[in-house]
Specification:
- Helix content is 71%, strand content 0%.
- It contains 15 helices and no strands.
- Helix 9 crosses helix 11.
- It is globular and about 90 Å long.
């Protein structure tokens, strides 16, 4: 096991080099970057003052300021040497280090990601198991209809509907329109802060988990149904085990294998973001940060998010494979 983990960790290094180089190359080749933007602003300012066009020397100074006066491979080597120290350069849009900008959005996205992740699994596994056992019943039909209804509605559309219905729109005024906290949040006692956060986060949290909730429940149900129909279950029942005993002692562990692949996402939750949901509820998370960085050509922030999310995704895949081996001892990792 240790040898397998070490081998996988070593494979991350060349993979990250390849991913980072391709992303760096694409970002550097995209037109309309920070150099062009600053040249455009400087030229506009000069024209307003009745000045002349920027001289070639001034243009070269702007390129040197952003490091574009060097060859591509040299720029990549300089950038990579900083990245290993978690130095992604300066954010052009925010005027501070890109790492500070990215890390400032962690708490919001991480809270939504982890909370929705664990609640989805805690509810979807027993619910999917119950639906499989009662396959074809009224309970199965009603819950499936409700989940499919939620699955086909986009999260941002549901958010707008919930705001209209429950947040001071045309009907009830039970929840705030958006944001994370009230204006007097820091003056509240600890319990009051928790209740205020829950009050603000309930509607966006509901929009976050809806699609994932339906997918995981149906995945669990189908996985359990497949295991119930296999020969080993019939053999266990023939040997005198009750259906409940055979289900929990044999089928359940095998049914969890497809869900183990989704567990790899736990390492990328801090970089997860639903742009439209964050826009609807005025939540400043990773989705909105990534969108704004792309719009403003804030390439250091864009590259920082891509590199960190890819690295965590590879760690997540390793975690998922190890979880496979834990759930099913027949799987040999090596």
């Amino acid at each position: 096991m240790q040898k397998y983990i070490l081998k996988r960790l070593l494979l991350i290094l060349p993979t990250m080099l390849g991913i980072s180089f391709v992303c760096f190359l694409i970002v550097q080749m995209v037109p309309g970057g920070p150099v062009e933007e600053m040249i455009s602003k400087a030229q506009s300012a000069a024209n307003m003052k009745g000045g002349h066009n920027l001289s070639p020397e001034q243009i070269e100074q702007i390129k040197a300021y952003f490091g574009f006066d060097k060859p591509l491979l040299e720029r990549y080597a300089i950038w990579l040497s900083k990245v290993v120290r978690l130095d992604f350069g300066e954010s052009y849009a925010y005027g501070q280090s890109a790492w500070s900008v990215i890390s400032s959005k962690f708490p919001v996205s991480l809270f939504f990601g982890l909370t929705s992740f664990f609640i989805s699994y805690l509810v979807c596994i027993p619910l999917g198991l119950a639906k499989a056992v009662k396959n074809g019943s009224k309970f199965d039909s009603i819950t499936s209809a409700l989940m499919f209804s939620g699955y086909v509605v986009p999260g941002y559309a549901l958010g707008i509907l919930l705001i209209v219905l429950l947040a001071g729109g045309s009907f009830l005024n039970l929840f705030p329109l958006g944001g994370l906290t009230s204006d007097n949040f820091y003056e509240m006692p600890f319990l009051g802060k928790l209740l205020d956060l829950a009050h603000h986060l309930f509607l966006p949290f509901l929009c976050y988990i809806l699609a994932e909730f339906a997918f995981l429940t149906l995945l669990m149900k189908n996985s359990v149904l497949e295991e119930i129909g296999k020969d080993y279950m019939r053999t266990a029942l023939a040997k005198g085990l009750s259906f409940k005993e055979a289900l929990f002692k044999h089928a359940l562990r095998n049914a969890l294998l497809p869900l183990a692949t989704r567990m790899s996402e736990i390492f990328t939750l801090m970089f997860a973001g639903a742009l439209l949901i964050e826009k609807v509820f005025d939540i400043d998370g990773m989705g909105l940060l990534y969108y704004n960085a792309m719009v403003h050509r804030d390439y250091n922030v864009v590259l920082g998010i891509i590199v960190l999310s890819c690295f965590m995704a590879m760690l997540g895949r390793l975690f998922s494979d190890l979880l496979y081996g834990f759930i099913d001892p027949r799987i040999k990792l090596g």
